[in-house]
Amino acid sequence: xxxxxxxxxxxxxxxxxxxxxxxxxxxxxxxxxxxxxxxxxxxxxxxxxxxxxxxxxxxxxxxxxxxxxxxxxxxxxxxxxxxxxxxxxxxxxxxxxxxxxx
Length: 102
Fold this sequence. Notes:
This protein has 102 residues and is mainly α. Helix content is 76%, strand content 0%.
């Protein structure tokens, strides 16, 4: 009977690839321990080595975009406060100082 196809989480893939890179275990031991084919372990190892540099560039880009967002937030808060005050004054002109109870 055929085994159902499994989807592995990225954390698991990273753990297996790091174990393969470290070389602490033989391929046969890793296959038995993680229950994954040797070709799959080699693919994950190659992917990790090929994309290792992207990890640091993505972290830097994320921190830059976070800083930009944090700088824009006070301006947005000020704008929304002004709009809210403007609308409140308009309602006071229409319905009087006590306003209409909805």
